[in-house]
Design a protein that fits this description.
alpha/beta, GMP Synthetase, Chain A, domain 3, Beta-Lactamase, 4 domains, 7-stranded antiparallel sheet, IHF-like_DNA-bd_dom_sf
């Protein structure tokens, strides 16, 4: 616990407190005003004053984030309160719909008795946070004519008489209405604050805890805001301040925001529009939908469509540049995590549809006259189109919102003309540690112990992005071990600092055989390949790098099939088996939508199935899982997930650690089932086991894991 006893600095909390007292009548004080007044008070430049305030905040934030209490004598204490997860009634639908409130950490500040007295009695005095402040406040109270109240010893008869008087005073008049007001009782010892559950019914004016009684709540789900109104607040300002314009009446701009108490945002909008503003409370869902409309704002201003707004159909004028149309469609597809973009001709329109999950959703409509221009634009984006049997496929890259994204153009020649489909490539965008990918506790410890040993480690999975993520995470792991890492890759997806990466596609006439021979004398500790080499080259690698670490990425379903795939290239099973250390595998699975997931009950048959699968884990691991409980979740579907119940994907992981028995089974007579059984006895975390674990955490639905179990 940090104790600020007698903090000596140019700025003190006493000065800040006195400044606050001098401005008691002010409705608010922002950072700029506080800095200005405090700078004048302590005769210090504003820049240094602001730095001192920020430093004080940084120290408090760092300490509290570590779970420490920060106490400033006679001022108060900053501390952290953990509210565990619980199931509550929905704030709008009540008992008809139950929702899960996730565990949260909340920062609290408990003022000292000196501060409480100062505020409660509107006293103005100095040095209230220094030693002896209680005496100073008592003198100020006495000077102000405020009496000190002390408990006196009274007899039992006097005590009974007082109780009777209090009862009579509390009895309401017959015509008075009795209103129950819930009161949260806080224990005297603030270090053990309870989480109070109020059973008393509370009148709900809005579904938000941060709402103000004087701010009107407005539902925007069925209101179409004109583009001319949205243009009053630029897109960047709306995203930054979380404020959107709703309407303009009598030179008063009506704005929507989820936090009407954000005075800084209100000031920003007022200075921007130079009009009077009237805030309204809106939901997070409505805010997100309106912010999404900004991406189509420039196009909607030029639309000439009579279709209903609910269909979100957009008709583009010929004056709109085709390149801008395409960029906006691709940007929206990436944001909504669409896997395919269809351009289908229907009557006089080109209907743009997104494949999101299992659904094909209409998103926009183009004039059919733009069809040839759209085709020509996409063909200009690709260098060379490869056509085979009437099907054209070609990769191309494009900056979307400043981020490079990869797409695949797929075109077919149909009876009614040429049609195209754009496939979004799920590319790796950032380097993650092995723990961030999902390897935890027991598995991560096994990697630490086995990965640095000389031998062969395999990375496998069916999804390119999953294998690439583990490939670079393992390269980063070896770099942290102060090992010299060299990678041989075809078009690297990421640049890893401290790792020697060789792009084989960019070297004219690249000779892998000669490169392997050269690297053997290059003082290379770890050689990593993002694809399987031929049998001859692989045997050469095993010979030249016998005392080094070799990592190979294999496209296969799981750990066992990765061994089968590698042996199928014609390598020597005995030599390979002798070198095998471990196999890391990943499989993509849909992630639950956090906005609509709810607890779900599972039947006894499924419970037994889960118990049997987890029975292969060590006893200490099963005990740790029991502490997670037995709660599973299911996505109900909402607007944010397009009714699918899922948003994005995550990974189920496998880790197989080889021992002598497993190596013998690979070398002598490869039997997948025997290897699986022996691996479970040693160290083998399967997709099924890892899937159940992340389902218990609430990341995925158990119903999505069960097919993998079968």
């Amino acid at each position: 616990m940090l104790n600020f006893e007698g903090l000596q600095a140019h700025v003190t909390l006493e000065s800040a407190l006195k400044i606050q007292q001098e401005n008691i009548r002010a409705t608010k004080m922002n950072q700029r005003e506080l800095t200005k007044i405090l700078s004048k008070k302590i005769n210090l430049p504003a820049k240094k004053t602001r730095k001192l305030i920020e430093s004080f905040g940084d120290v408090i934030s760092l300490a509290v984030s570590k779970g420490e209490k920060v106490t400033y004598s006679n001022f108060g204490t900053f501390y952290l309160v953990n509210y565990p997860s619980k199931v509550i009634n929905h704030p709008i639908f009540g008992k008809k719909k139950r929702t899960v409130m996730l565990a949260t950490n909340v920062v609290k500040w408990m003022p000292s008795d000196s501060i409480k007295d100062l505020v409660n009695h509107h006293l103005q005095t100095e040095n209230v946070t220094t030693f002896g402040a209680a005496k100073t406040i008592r003198e100020a109270k006495k000077k102000a004519g405020i009496a000190e109240y002390k408990a006196l010893d009274i007899s039992k008869a006097e005590h009974s008489a007082l109780i009777e008087i209090q009862k009579k005073e509390k009895e309401p008049a017959p015509e008075e209405e009795i209103t129950e007001i819930p009161i949260r009782v806080i224990k005297k010892d603030w270090t053990d604050l309870p989480i109070t559950h109020l059973d008393t019914p509370v009148r709900r004016t809005t579904p938000f805890t941060r709402a103000l009684s004087q701010v009107e709540y407005i539902d925007l789900s069925k209101i179409q805001i004109p583009s001319t109104i949205l243009c009053l607040v630029p897109k960047e300002i709306a995203h930054r301040t979380k404020v959107v314009p709703i309407d303009l009446k009598d030179e008063i701009l009506i704005i929507g925001m989820t936090d009407p108490t954000d005075h800084e945002a209100l000031d920003t909008i007022k200075k921007l529009v130079r009009k009077q503003i009237s805030p309204r409370l809106i939901s997070e869902k409505d805010l997100t939908q309106i912010l999404n409309r900004y991406d189509m704002l420039g196009i909607e201003s030029a639309q000439a469509t009579t279709k209903p707004a609910e269909t979100r159909q957009i008709d583009w004028k010929k004056t709109t540049p085709v390149s801008r149309v395409i960029n906006l469609i691709l940007k929206r597809a990436v944001r909504e995590q669409a896997t395919m973009i269809h351009f289908d001709t229907e009557d006089d329109d080109i209907v743009v549809r997104f494949r999101i999950g299992d659904q094909l959703l209409d998103k926009a409509s183009l004039s059919k006259s733009l069809h040839q221009k759209v085709l020509a634009h996409f063909k200009r984006l690709v260098d060379q189109s490869e056509e085979k049997n009437g099907v054209t496929r070609q990769l191309f890259s494009l900056n979307v919102a400043g981020v490079p994204e990869e797409f695949e153009l797929i075109g077919i020649t149909a009876v009614d003309g040429e049609k195209i489909v754009i496939k979004t490539k799920n590319r790796l965008k950032e380097l993650k540690k092995l723990t961030e990918i999902g390897f935890r506790d027991r598995d991560y410890q096994a990697i630490i112990e086995n990965a640095p040993r000389p031998g062969v480690n395999l990375i496998t999975g069916q999804e390119d992005v999953g294998r690439a993520g583990m490939f670079y995470a393992l390269a980063d792991f070896y770099r942290d071990q102060n090992l010299h890492v060299v990678t041989l890759e075809k078009s690297p997806a990421l640049a890893v600092s401290g790792v020697s990466q060789i792009d084989m596609n960019k070297i004219p006439g690249f000779d892998l055989n000669a490169t392997i021979s050269t690297l053997a004398a290059f003082d290379c500790d770890v050689l990593m390949l993002d694809s399987i080499p031929g049998a001859e080259i692989f045997n050469q690698i095993l010979t030249l790098f016998a005392e080094k670490i070799i990592v190979i990425s294999v496209e296969a379903y799981d750990s066992i099939t990765a061994i089968t795939t590698l042996l199928g290239t014609g390598i020597n099973p005995a030599v390979f088996a002798k070198k095998l250390n471990l196999i890391l595998a990943s499989k993509e699975i849909s992630r639950l939508c956090p906005h609509c997931r709810e607890l779900v009950k599972i039947d006894s048959k499924t419970v037994r199935q889960i118990r049997d699968i987890l029975a292969d884990l060590p006893a200490d691991e099963r005990a740790r899982l029991r502490r997670l409980g037995s709660h599973f979740y299911q996505g109900q579907g909402c607007k944010k997930c397009n009714g699918s119940g899922h948003i994005g994907n995550t990974m189920m992981l496998e880790l197989l650690v080889a021992n002598e028995k497993i190596r013998d089974l690979i070398a002598d007579d490869f039997d997948a089932e025997k290897i699986r059984k022996e691996a479970l006895k040693n160290h083998f975390t399967t997709y099924a086991q890892d899937g159940i674990i992340i389902a218990l955490i609430g990341e995925v639905a158990i119903s999505d894991v069960l097919p993998e179990i079968k």
